[in-house]
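Please predict the structure of the following assembly.
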Amino acid sequence: MPAKKEVCDADGVKAAVEKVADGIISEFLDAFPEDFVVIGIHQQGVPLARRLIDFIKNKTGYVPELGMLDISMYRDDIGVRQDLPQISETLIPFDMNDKIVILVDDVLSSGRTIRAALDAVTDYGRPGLIRLAVLVNRGSHEFPIGADYTGMTLAVPAERKVVVEFEETEGHDRVCTIDWKKKRRSAKEDD
Amino acid sequence: MGKFTWTKKDLLSIYDLNAEEICCILDTAEEFKKVSQRNVKKVPALRGKTVVNFFVEPSTRTRMSFELAEQRLSADIINISASLSSLQKGETLLDTARNIEALQADLIVMRHSAAGAHVPLADKIKCGVLNAGDGAHSHPTQALLDTFTIREKKGKIKGLKVAIVGDILHSRVARSDAWALLKLGAEVRLAGPSTLVPREFEKMGVKVCHNLKEAIKGVDVVNLLRIQHERQKAGFFPSTGEYSKFFGLNEETCKYLKPDTMIMHPGPINRGIELDSSLADGSRSVILEQVTNGLAVRMAVLFLVAGCVKK
C-alpha cells in the first residue's frame, strides 16, 4: 500500500462536517447558545470544532462558545510512548457547570484520547451532558467509548492510521491513511 | 509552539540546556500554571510515579515548591533529609541513590552542597535526576522560574538588560540565571563588591560592575540576591550596613531605574539590607509571582523529565 493514501477528498470532508453539525443542530437547537459549548481536542479537533461552530452559526444564527483542550496531562502512557507529547494551549473561557458540552476530535480510534479528555473536562466543572463528535470513526476501539455524531465511518486495516488534514493547518481538506508502524514512533502517536 | 520535543531524563544544570530546551520548559510551564488557577488544582500526569525528594542540604521554599508540584501532578512522594538518611552512617551518595532506585522510584529531586553531585548519579541510575541546587554551582529551576517570570511580564527575553546584584561568587542562582538569560539573548550585568564579583565572570559574556548605579541604569530587570551574614564574618565586605549603603536598592538608589524596571528577589529577603521594604512590596516587585511561577516551572520539568525515564 502507498505510504500515504487519500481516502476522502475536500468535498467528502465538507459533507462529513455538515453531517455532524446537522446532527448536533437537530438535537440541541433549543439549548443554543447559552447552555451549549463546543470543545475541540488538540490538535485536529480544534479546527474541526471551529468549522462546526461556523456551520451552526450560518444555519441557525447562534454562535456557541469554543473551548480548546490539550489532554497531554491526562494521558495514560507517560514513560511508555517513544516521545513526549507537546502541550498545546488549553482554553476553557466559560463555566462548564451544567453546560451541554460537545467534545470534538478528528478521529475516534482506540478511545484513549477521549477517556483522557473526559477526565480533563470534568476537572474543569460538572457539565450537564457531554457528547462526542468526530469526523471519522475508524473502529478498533479499545475502550467502551463510541461517538454520538460521526461524519464518516471508515474500515481501515489495523496497520494503517487515519489522518485528517484541514485547510487551516495543512492547506487542504482531505482524509488519508498512512502506515501505522512508521507513525507509531513519532510524536503524533494519538488516538 | 514549535516542533521541538524534550528528550532528557535529567535536569542537571542550565548550562547543559540550549535555548530551544529552555523555551520548551517555559512553554510547558505556561499550561501548568493554569492548572493551579482552576478549582481542581491537580492533573493525573504523574499518577503511579514515585518521586523522592532527597535534600542533603536544608531547603524550605524549593522543597515546598517541588513537593506541591509533585502533588499537583498526582505523584507519590517520599521526603528524605540528610539528618534522617544513612549518609550519616557513612553510606555513599550513590548507594543511597541505588537504594532509592531499588524501591522503583522514578524521579529523584536532589539538593546537595557539593557542586556537580548530581552528574555521576544521573549517569549511573535509571531514575530521572532533578537538581534542586548544588553548592554554588547550579539551581536550574530557580533560573527557569526567573526566566519564566521575565518572559511573562516583558513578553520576551531577547535584547532585555538584566542586572543581578549581590553575592555573585557564592550564588548558584546568579550563575544559573546568567546562563539562562545569556542563552536566550539578554544582556546580563553582574554587580556587587569586587570581593564577591570577580572579573573572572566576564568570561561568561556578562558585564561585571562594581558600582550599583552603573549596573542598574537603563535595565529592564534588577534581580537582588540575599546577602548572607556569614559572608561578612569571612571578610568579603566590612559590614551589612556598608553593603547596604553601596549595593542596597532603596528609595534613593532606585532613582536610577527606569519606571518600568521589574524588581526580583529569589528570597528569603533581608529587608533593608539588599532591598528596602517599600520596593519589595511595591508595584514593580514580582517577588511573590516568582514563587507562583516556581510551582508551574517545577510541574513542567517534572512532567518533561518523567516522560523520558524509561524502565
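The two ends of chain A are 22 Å apart (CA to CA). Chain A touches chain B at residues 70, 72-75, 78-79, 81, 83-84, 86-90, 119-120, 123-125, 187 (CB under 8 Å).
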